[in-house]
Each structure stands twice: as C-alpha cells, then as structure tokens.
Amino acid sequence: MEVDVYWIESEGVRDMSFIRKPLADCVPELVATARGDLPATLVITGGRLVNVCSGEILEGMSVAVQGGRIAYVGKDVSHMIGEGTRVIEAAGRYIAPGLLDGHCHIESTQLTVTEFARAVLPLGTTGGFFDAHEIANVFGLKGIRLMLEEMRGTPLAAYMQVASCVPSAGPEFETTGASIGPEEVAEAYTWGEDVIALGEVMNFPGVVYGDSKMLGEIQATLRAGRVVDGHFTWPADDWRLPVYAAAGVTGDHECVTAEDVIERVRLGMYAQMRRGSAWHDVAKTITAHTEHGLDPRRMLLVTDDRSSESLRDEGHMDFVVRHAISQGVKPVTAFQMATINTAERFGVARDIGSITPGSCADMILLDGNLADVHVVMTIAAGVVVAENGIMTASLAPYTYPGEVLASVHLLKLPVAEDFVIHAPLESGSLSTRVIRVIENHVETEELILDLPVAEGRLQVGNGLCKIAVLERHKGTGNKSVGVVAGIGFHEPAAIAMTVAHDSHNVLVIGNDDELMAQAAGAVAEAQGGVAVITGTGTTLFPLAIAGLMSTQPFEIAAAQSAAVSKALYDSGCTLNYAFMTLSLLALAVIPTLRISDKGLVRISPEEGIGLVSLFV
Questions:
Q1: For this protein, what reaction is catalysed (predicted)?
Q2: Where are the beta strands (DSSP E) in 279-412?
Q3: N or C: which end of the chain has fewer CB within 10 A?
Q4: Three-class SS string for 8-54?
C-alpha cells in the first residue's frame, strides 16, 4: 500500500513551484532589475527593515525581488515596478528575514515535512537545518532520502543533516531498524548541496576515545566540505570538551547552563540554545549574553523540538525569539540569533538569513512592536505563502511507500505477564535502580530504592511505574522492564508509543500490567503511534509513517496530540508536554539512567555509557 500525505488546498489557490536557483544563475536578471531595466516580480515598500547584518532598524526601506531572490534594498524601488509587479505596502510595519531553526527533528513534531511547512510558514519560519535521525533509526538512508525529497517540494529553505548515530550508542546497547556508518554518510553528501552537515554526534564518548566509526563519519563530512553538529552532555568544565571540539565539531545544542554556552563559544563552537515543547533551556543559557556579556554572534536559538500541539498553541521559532526577548535580549539581537547567526554557522549566509541584495527572498512582515514577533505575512523564495496566520499557497502531496507505513514488527503481541519483573528472591526487598523523570529537562536521575518482593516478583507501587521497551524493528522479541519515578499516575493507567528516541522501539509505561499490554498492542495494531489506556477508555494517536509521523493534516494531528496530553493529565501525569518528555526515556546517550530493549543504560562522565543491572 502507498499513501499520499493528506494536504489542504485553500479555495482559489493554485499549485506553485518553489524553485531556489543558485545565485550564479540569477545574476543577469538581478542586476537588470536593480538598474530598472527589468520589472521586479514583487516589491515591499515603506517598511522598517530589521537589518541583522548591522544590528539596526532602518526606517522607510523598500525591497525589490526578482523571482526567488532579492534584487535591491533601499529607500526607493519605484523604477523597478512594472505592470506585472506585485506591490506590498508595508505601511511602517517591520520587514525581517524569515526565521531559521538551527536544530530540529521534523519527525518529533509528529508531522510530515509538508504538514510541518504548513504549520510553521504562517509563523514566520522559512527554513531550517533538519536532522532526520528519527526516521534514520527505522529506515536508514532510505528514510533520510524520502524526507529530503519531500523537503525539496516545499517553500522552505530546508537543509538536511545526515544522521551520525544510528544507533545512537551502538548495537550492544540497543536495537534499531538500520545502521549508518562512514560510507553511508559519504554517500548522502552526493545527493546535493542541501545535504549540509553531519547531524548531532551523540556518541561523544566514542569521539573522545577514538571510536573508528564516529571518527570516520566526521572525516567523511569534513572531506565533503560540510560541518559537524555536536551533542556533548558532560559538564562544561570537563577536560574532554576541547577534545571533542578538536575532532571538528563546531556546534552543540546540549547547553543547559550559561557555563555550557560560554565554554563552547570560547572554543569557537556555536552554542545552540533550545526552547522546545518540554525543554526550557533558553532562560538559563541566554544569561551567557545578558549577564556575562559574551558576544552573541555564535549563539543560536533552536527548538529541538516542538510537538504539533505546541506548534498550534505556542508557535515555532517566533515563540522562541519572543521568549528570548522576554529574558532581556535586545529584539534585533534575538532576530540575529534566529537568522544570520544560524546561516553563518552552516555556511549559507550568502543565500539565507538576511535581507540583502542577492539573498533568497525569504522575508516576514511583523505588526506591532518588534518584541511581539507578530508575523502577518510570510514570503518564501519570493512568493507570498501565508498571510495573517493562514497559508495562501498550496503544497503538493508526497507519497510514502507501503513499507514505511508498516514498520512495527513485534515477535508477538504482549500480554500482562510480559511486564512482570521477576526477582532473584522469593520475598523481602531489593535495592533497585529507578529512572526519575525531571520536568522540562532532557536528563534523568538515577535513584536507588528498596522495593518489596512478594512471590518472587518485584512489587512496584507507591507512585512508581513500570517502564518497558519491546524491540519492534526485526521481531527479535528483545524486551526489558524497569522502574520509573515522576510519572504521577493516580489511577490505573498506561501509555505506549513507537516514538521512543532514538531507536524508536515500543516504549511502555504504566502502573497496571494488563493496561500496559493493551496499550502496547494498540500501537502495534495501528502500525505506530501513541496509546493511553485507563479505566475510562483508550486515546489513540496513530503515527503510521515509520511509527513516527501522522498521515493527517497539521490541524488533526495537533488535536490528537492534545488528546494524548489530556488523557495523561486526567490520569495524574501533569508533566509539561508529558509525551515529549516520556519519549526520551529510551535515549541511551543522555544522562543519567535510560532503558533500551537490552536493559538499563547508565551514562556518566567517569564511566561513559554502559549497561547496568536493575538490582544493585
């Protein structure tokens, strides 16, 4: 079976192509337009230009566009207006570069690329740098290629990063649907210049201690003239951060303190400060600039990531920029952190990130105060694609092959007995490792708790839940069961999901073995998704594309995501955007304690990454 991703065409809107030609191919037309010999295709007049190159607001400015690029920026563009020129009167509104997301996994929005574009373009995001390591863990290079092809059909200035850690920590720690190494990385760079970087190198211990696979991927990237994105979670003052940087890693989003930002910038790296749905790191990290006075030119604002629900309710990069401004950043500086800084980090500032002659015509008009980041028009590749929060351009559907819609391969459907934790004694108590969730943070804590044993089974109660991972790629039957704290269920409940970073096996959490089995079965039968089951019923969010993304339009996906959040909240799990936080509990490269299909994984600066037993 094959399926077209659902899409909506607004009444009266025609299909369009969004072609971004190289600057070299556009020079004659741009120069002729700027002289006034060739009419501009579009002009914006009388605006307040947010000049991110100079850090100024310039009054009474106009912009002329030829095709997909900017031909002229100045006070007067009247000599470029012809019969076919579309004229937009800015009337004193701000004209700013389109916003760029410097680190995003589109799959984590639960949307396809097309629906992601529909969601974020009206919010002022016109491009980004996307690491498709979620689908790569399920389908390898084929998954990345599918998303790249879909990206190329949207108005976004979309750049792909090649997944570096598939699996994230190595096959000895987890089972994935595919693997990627140096040869695959090198192959991906032959697909086009929009394959721009090596995605976050999460196996930072492997880099530091000379793992040949990780170093080989970095070498393939550097030889191809691309850049390397990082993921370093040891403390900022750890002596191994400069070792990591010596490998050629020049950007990192795992910044949670001002010190993290300061040390990376001092080493010549770009510090990416994130405000995702459930990770609220900007407030602390931005103080590297606002309080410590560091030059912000190597600081980027990123999402990493925002669910479809939070895209609907809060926004995308517009929300992150607004939040940074609320933390004391000058508005123009905040815009730089989401435009030109990002473009410069990836070496594409000639094309995107500023409103300058020759650049791609990716612009937004903003009403009210600049600090409000109130986007009322989005122009991408020289085309008005959204006005007043509504898409005005139609986006063509993209067809996913049948195998991508059937990626859940359990050895068998689980039963309640599969979630029993057998103890090495008949009765008494055992010191047990417990994962503790920390709200609004990606890291977890390791607790050691004495838990009772009865009839040879570990008794998990008093607010604790069981957590399990079932291998779903190859039907191996691999399974592990552990204990987690901080979920908050106050009634019998369970959640199962095939979104379980990064290996994306079936992750199940609950306080009732039967409900855990039912939830896991529900997502398996749906060929991917999220299921919350309580005594009052089942809430299902199908994610059929690789078990990660919805086939539905943004509006429906957002509503289904919100329904999952409500079901969790009603059951007592009040974590902010709980699903996003819970989906990381199987991510085997982030401190401190995680779970995979092969057992508990602990990450520490002293010992690196290693499997540990449930019982101490």
A1: adenine + H2O + H(+) = hypoxanthine + NH4(+)
A2: 299-302, 363-367, 374-380, 383-387, 390-391, 399-400
A3: N
A4: CCCCCCCECCCCCCCHHHHHHHHHHHHHCCCCCCEEEEEEEEEECCC
Q: Which two tokens stand for residue 364?
A: 């937004």
Nearest alpha carbon to residue 267 among 278, 279, 255, 277: 255
In the three-class reduction of DSSP (H, G, I as helix; E, B as strand; rest coil), residue 406 is classed as coil
Residue 337 has, within 13 A of its CA and on its CB side, a CA count of: 30
Contacts of 588 (CB under 8 A, 6+ apart): 167, 168, 169, 173, 174, 502, 503, 594, 596, 601, 603, 609
Cα 201 to the chain's mean position, in Å? 15
- Residue 595 — left, alpha, or beta (φ > 0 → left; ψ -120 to 50 → alpha)? beta
How many angstroms separate the Cα of 83 from the Cα of each of 38, 74, 80, 265, 418? 11, 21, 10, 50, 72
Secondary structure element (H or E) that encloses residue 274, with its range: strand 270-274
Phi, psi of 481 (to 5 degrees): -130, 135
Residues forming beta bridges with residue 595, ordered by sequence position:
600
pLDDT-flagged residues of the chain (< 70)? 1-17
Q: What are phi and psi of 107, to 5 degrees?
A: -55, -30
In one-letter notation, the amino acid at residue 389 is G
Cβ-Cβ contacts under 8 Å for 28 (sequence gap 6 or more)? none
Residue 35: partners with Cβ closer than 8 Å, 6 or more residues away: none
Give the pLDDT confidence of 255-265 residue by residue, as tens digits: 999 999 999 99
First to last CA, the chain: 48
> Which two structure tokens, joined as six digits, stand for 69?
């690029």
Burial class (CB in 10 A: 0-12, 13-18, 19+), 168: buried
Residue 186's CB is within 10 A of a number of other CB atoms, namely 17
Strands (E), 106-248: 125-131, 157-162, 195-201, 227-230
User: 345-402 pLDDT, tens per residue?
Assistant: 999 999 999 999 999 999 999 999 999 999 999 999 999 999 999 999 999 889 999 9
